[in-house]
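Troubleshooting entry. Yesterday's outputs looked truncated, so today I'm pasting the complete records for two proteins to confirm everything comes through intact. If either block looks cut off, that's the bug. Protein one:
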Amino acid sequence: MGIKTNFSIKDLENLSGVKAHTIRIWEKRYDLLKPERSETNIRTYNLNSLQKLLNVSVLNEHGMKVSKIAKLSDDDISSQVKELSIVDDSSQHFMHSFKLAMLTFDQELFDATYNTMLKTFSFREIFQGIFMQLLQDIGVLWVTNTITPAHEHFISTLIQQKLQINIEKVQGTSDASQGTFVLFLPLNEIHDLGLMYIHYELLLKSYKCIYLGQSVPIENLLEVKKVFDKMTFISYFTVSPPNDSVDQYLKEISSLVLTDKGEELHIFGRNTKEVNISSLPSNIRIHENMEELLQFV
């Protein structure tokens, strides 16, 4: 698939957070961007325009007036953003760099941005402060057709690689006396980055973990029970099971899998929002988000 090189003003709004109305004012008043126009007078913007807008929004949010920014050259704008990234702990410019890397399928830019962040932040801070927000933004960008599945897959794979590297670093001695955590996604569920991060956090606490990953049939969980005791199951529902099947799925898990005293299932995710709490089995807990689940465990 080719790189997306032309963007609508709505795309720019979705990617930068700057309202389309504001972008038009900046164009008209300060000649900040120079879009191409179709025969029907529809604006389109190239990658250079997008990058400039991202940089301008960073400087503007840090107190520099747009009228002053407009007098700077593109190189001076980029230079000031880089200087700002050295002395400022805010994450906006890093977020913009990751988005630009995604749009241009630029792994070198992704790695350079990540390595720059590592000089100041821990991996946990990067994942929780940047990657989690980036993944949420990507979901919105995909729904609004600003990006394609190819963009989403590209950036998700790079984040997954960093996560796997850090998981490998903390794998080692675990304390099975505290019980065993089994992490899995239901059948047909493939969005596993959130689950992988929970795996990382549990390993940091030296818990024994069995990571089963994507698309696991319920009957496969019974195989794990033959080997380990005192198990706590963790899962994440985004697309599967479907909303109208979640209650039945949880009853099945409870009756077939959570049969020993003290066994529990902890879940979170979009498809848990419609669960009938009043009929929820006592050995299943629903969490509002990943942060709440991590606090509990």
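Protein two, checking that the full record survives here as well:
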Amino acid sequence: MLRYLTAGESHGKALVAIVDGLPAGLPVAAEDVNRDLARRQSGYGRGGRMKIEKDGVEFLAGIRQGLTLGSPVAMLIANRDWGNWAAVMAAEAPSAATPVDEDGEPVRGDPRVTKVVTRPRPGHADLAGALKYGHRDLRNVLERASARETAARVAVGALAKRLLAEVGIGVWSYVVDIGGVAFDPAGLDPVEAHRRADASELRCPDPETTARMRARIDEAKRRGDSVGGIFEIVVTGAPAGLGSHVQWDRKLDGRLARALMSIQAMKGVEVGLGFAGARLGGQAVHDEIVPDPERGRQGLAPFGRPTNRAGGIEGGMTNGEPIVVRVAQKPISTLAHPLRSVDLATGEPVEAAYERSDVCAVPAGSVIGEAVVAIEVAAALLEKVGGDSLAEVKAHLDATRRLQAELVRR
């Protein structure tokens, strides 16, 4: 079973990820991870933090001489801004009480005083987290709720993508909407769309749409506002039968939706036609099944679909077509022109707190989405075919494909 955990706070010393269940013999290099970490930090509309942090991974365990060992992989991503936050985020109890002046007031400028947050931001985890855990300083919530945590998930996803690539499965993403400025990727090969997206400052494959998206972000920035958007993820090469129909928690579409909705700021997921299919009749929604001799010559089950409205998943399982999911990302909740809030220290109405933030993080969202989709698909693959080494995984997958092809000919 492929599983992982992350730890770390936004302004803490480092982020840590532990990945358990990767097969032995998987070729891995730090560059594989660092490439995706850099992609996560890119994009027009990002905040000042991206100029400070240049993320890089350090492997602590589970990899030797470029190959996974089959044991848990531990990774560390240092926070370069830690030196400015060491007193505020120190794990040890302070050696002295918060300093006060001759009038008994907290000393201005002391970070233990100035970095306390008591004004929750609408749309953020601040208030709900404080009520749940009993925190008076909202920093105890926001540090972990921050999207900085996703750097660790992107690192895990890079390893999952490396495994998938070894068996011919690709995970691709691109942005299709920012603040209502939309691009229709219909008819564009997902690999080509991904390639163009990586060359775009907004991860949109179309230059003309990118220019209009950029103008939309500039408009929001002038108003002290933020914008969200939609990105699409496509998985190619996945065999039929990943996931299962037999229990609710084994359905792959449900697992993908859960993983994607767990990313900070995500508010909606659709597979294939998604919500649009609810407004159509069945004949316009379901994908017909037709003979496909070319697939048969490739050693696969010899049938295909002229359309892919189901997004590659039927009954909670992959059907051999590309997996297609779209994700709606809300605008960032930290605003330069803050909304109304209440100060937890006084109960008085105030403006919400503001910390350095992005105007738009949708391009980063698409890279994070890639990561969590890759993790879930890799986990489903290993559950389906098994194998303690990469060689076993490949052999078992080849056997699975042969059996599926033979089933049709019986």
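Both blocks look complete. Sanity check on protein two: The chain has 13 helices and 17 strands.
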